[in-house]
Records
---
Amino acid sequence: MSGTYVGMPSFPDAAHRATRDKQLRANLTRATHTIRDKRARAVAELEDWEGLRQAGKAIKDETLAHLDDYLLQLEAKVTEAGGIVHWARDADEANRIVTELIRATGQTEVVKVKSMATQEIGLNEHLAAEGISAYETDLAELIVQLGDDLPSHILVPAIHKNRTEIRDIFNRAMGHWGRPAPEGLTDTPADLAEAARLHLREKFLRAKVAVSGANFMVAETGTLVVLESEGNGRMCLTLPETLISVVGIEKIVPTWRDLEVFLQLLPRSSTAERMNPYTTTWTGVRDGDGPKQFHLVLLDNGRTQTLADEVGRQALRCIRCSACLNVCPVYERAGGHAYGSAYPGPIGAILTPQLRGIATDLDRSLPYASSLCGACFEACPVAIDIPEVLVHLRAKVTEDAKEHGGHRLERTAMRAATYAMTHPAAYRTAEAAAVRARKLIPKKVPFGAGKAWTETRDLPELPPQTFRQWWKETHR
Amino acid sequence: MSPTPQSPPPNSAAPTAREEILARIRRSTSGHARPAAEVDAVSRDYLTAHVHDGLIDLLAENLADYRAKVHRCTRAEIPGVVAKLLSEQGDRSVAVPDGLPEAWLEELRAPEAGVTLVPDSAALTATDLDAVDAVVSGCALAIAETGTIVLDAGPGQGRRMLTLVPDHHICVVRCPEQVVASVPQAMPLLDPGRPQTWIAGPSATSDIELDRVEGVHGPRRLDVILIEGEAG
Ligand code: SF4
């Protein structure tokens, strides 16, 4: 039903088209700025934010350094608690496992909790081809699915649609999937949410099988954790008889206690809330409460290959909060679709080419989808040095290109970026200069790799101050 | 480990997905220039709490900030408050988890209250609950800094679906004994073996132009009763 990322144009082409779409840009600008400002306030509430951030980073690094041990511990604990663990080397294998698990229940319909991992492997499309309907139950995912569209943001996947567009989608498509939109549906958010509630409740009450991802898995106890707002997650995780969770192997934390760090970092970074409305945790199955069968599918799909790269592996610390998207001037202009994978924005620019490799033009272009302004690194709650990884991946692309005849832009960009990144003072000056110059030179980034990148592209707007300035001003 | 559907036949020499993924991890993490020992030790120099006084006021404030409706009363006043909150919404039926203190629903037991009590039981399905207007529950604990209530299926809380499907949730917090300051203080008190639901305000979405709308799927109204005063 929903579209596919395969065969999409490379980032520059897609971004070029997206920047000309006024509606898309207006929606995105409003969204990213709203979330960004709220988030800054939520973070400023915690005076130990930097300590939490460093702890989050260290916990994830520890996990990655001993990932095999933690996975085995998790497997033992989940099994002990009555769950069944499966391992999937790649997307095909994961899709096959899930399909067979659903088949074994005799069902042809499943409800789904929003999950990046299942988007990454194209599960919905695979299930559709196998005659199984997968219903997205997150409101935004529902909008995307009904609109036969693709998500464009990690947190608010339908952010590129405005209310009128959403009403039209509901009127047009709800009837094909179940309960039609009510007569005379207006485009107020409350009315639209009510239509979604009625449409989906019918599905929740009927569903025998649910598919989810997870935000965290605790090795020590075998506990899975899902954070959400709407309650659709609780519905899917609690009501059906069978629950199948597809989770990337990097989503582990060693101990139950470690959650104290991430349950503070994630909501504030993501939705700028002190805590998201609902968090569900479960350990295996529990008599008389929740699903009778629980399957955990542990997904590799390029993660072990990413782990092998000492610089790039830090991308596996990502907790999918989307803070880096909301501060990224390139994302704001280009929109999420331009990145051509389930992971948009700065994290997508470093994660996707590592998970998939750099065989295609799109994947080779992703490390250049950045002005290297550094805002993403500053915003990241697990301190992923995204600019460092971008530069590192550009080097890889250049290496690769040399073997295939070379590429001028990539070489130029590479040299400039390397200079900036190895001269921190120069980098900071350039960054500040870029912000100061934003009114004067709106079409070019006057430094480093950004200059090379914008030579052939329109310049995204820069934030009014650098994160460093903001941090200094708000943390005196 | 349990067999995956595509496991190779028993005498095949091909490695299983599990073996192969573990082997890939070992290859990827061994022989690194940055040895595991150099990975930053996890330093826990963050705060275990950001506030120390006035926890109940803060809890009330943060709950209200997330659009839960907060009511403060003494133990003796609970039956009246519960009855009033139900009648305000026009609720005619209310789900009752095992182990809920009898006294809390005292006023509803009178026939003239016009409310049907639906005791939880394994036979009660989600569809049955869909026809129930409200639920009254206790909780495991509440976190003041974040305005969060944690349910862990303990006495007076019931199965997870009980506090999910009815549209109106009334949750009672015993103060101060069930109130902690922060998430780090809550974790050691919670048993990961029990299924947990953390609730911060009613169901909400901001998916449409970031306008916040309450109640897409969970209960649209969350009333939290903070009871204070002598234990009993
Ligand atoms: S890279 Fe960091 S900021 Fe971006 S989504 Fe991941 S955790 Fe959040």
---
Amino acid sequence: MEKLFPKMQIINENGEWNDETYRGEITEELTKELYTKMLRSRLFDRKGVNLQRQGRIGTYVPFEGQEASQIGSAMAMGEGDWMFPTYRDHAATMTFGHSLKTLFLYWKGRQEGCIPPEGKNIFPPAVPIASQLLHATGAAWAEKLKGTDRASIVYFGDGATSEGDFHEGLNFASVFNAPVVFFNQNNGFAISVPIEKQMKSKTIAQKAVAYEMEGVRLDGNDVFAVYFHTRTAVERARKGEGPTLIEAVTWRYGAHTTADDPTKYRNQEESVNRRETTDPILRLERFMKNENMWDEKWGADLQESLTLEIEAAVKEMEEAQAPHYNDVFDHVFAENPWPIESQKEAYAHSRGDR
Amino acid sequence: MTTAVDTKKLTMVQAVTDGMRVMMKEHENVIVLGEDVGQNGGVFRATDGLVAEFGENRVIDTPLAESGIIGTSIGLAMNGFKPIAEMQFLGFIYPAFNQIMTHASRIRARTLGHFTVPMVIRAPFGAGVRAPEIHSDSVEALFTGMPGMKVVVPSNPYDAKGMLVSAIEDPDPVLFLEPMRCYRSTKMDVPDGKYNVPLGKAARLQEGDDVTIFAYGAMIEVVMKAAKTAEEKGIKCDVIDLRTLYPLDKEMIAESVQKTGRAVIVHEAPGTGGLGETIISLINDTSFLYMKAPIERVTGFDTPVPMFALEDHYLPSADRVVQAIEKVTQF
């Protein structure tokens, strides 16, 4: 079965061509855009970990290593499409429209972190596992019923494929031919449980066969492979040709969350050593050098400007006006039922506010 | 001046169908989905005829997957549709509990109102129709304890249609529970067109000064029988059909017990954690000094609903309700 789902790759670990199908489209402009977005998200991610260590935000969920998967796929989506992230997909959501401030606010425990900018269809991060696959299917199905050509993309990890909602999501999307891209980031672990203990199947892509849909396995650390193959899946969805299951094989260097200790279940030295072969940013940098697209000054300037952007977002997050406690009460229903209204009044009274 | 309103004699299940039909005619975004709701018209025929009238894009037979039905309804609801999702029985809702608890009921709160899921979940429930095991569960308290959900239970055909219309028009998710025992037990004049029975409002079914009986759904028939027996013994009951379980009609509950000073609460769901405890707490908050006796509850037991050979033992009976009425009046 593994042979039926080869890991698609456009550039290899050394940044050399493996598949030249898209050579004409891989311009310096596109390459630099992808590199910029990946570096931006990595610096954001490292800042997130540091802010948590300093107690300036709450538990943070890092993604370093998964930048190519998230950014390549998000870049394939268009205006008006829908995105259903998990709690780990900040690189995808910042590519699709979330501001850095919004993302930091989420980890600061602020509801505002769940709200996308006007006109951007980004759902709040799904905290349960795999439940969001059904929302993506429902939203995509709605677009189909409305007669638009908009599509949904939904993110999930390898552990999610063991949940019932994974199968229900694929089955509903298949039965109703919903324009949805199921984007799996397979990083080999569901917290501490390695994929060998998660499933007997050798690939996740092959699970598409059971649902009579396209299954694609790709190198999730090759941003070009992710971008072009996701774009194909989105085009297929727009044309009414149904859903696609994409398995992006990747690797995350850090912990599941900042509350977790990966050294208990994974050899971290080996993980760090994998950077030579798996780091998507290093790979793109090698490619740019091979293709004479790299300029040291450009790289240094970029690093500096992105650092400044991230610091500015941190400042905005930390200077954001504290939320009013009435936000606890005022958005559960369109109109407050009396139990919530009386609890709100009692709480205000207890604070001496009325 | 009065305006004549055309009515039809309908059973509750027919009134439910009529409520959906009226709203589907009025709003193109109202869709019905669930298992067997199309050609088969639902296991109780609640969606009978709708697919012929509105087509398969609006009355949708789904795969057999409760979480799938609710999860996709969430996506449809927040993207412009008004799904009415049918669970074949409330006892089959458990696979969908995660979707309702972690998403449907809290998306508005999580996004400060940016995303909402205006949807209705319909589910037949309750014992007394000799259904197989699991089918008869009465677990409404799981949902009244779920922030962000409204929970309603009609007990007659008129209310069923009017409350379903209100549930469909409600901007938030509503769990619409249909007592199976009431589906075909009575017929009633039901207006042809659209009308609303507001959510959050109880109904006084009988006036009395001695004791208040609170009930809902299939227990209404039981408590009306008990109230008649009590009246023969000289005890006059105020009978309140709660109709909406979240939020409760605080005003009517308080007004009635402040008049009678005594209360009996009847529901077939388990006693512990049941709605009766919430009502007692509400009476404590609003009317403690008016009470002349401790409040009595007649409820199902803290046991699984038994298979039907034993269900009559499980269900509150009129005799048990009469005993409770006598206990509070003789205190």
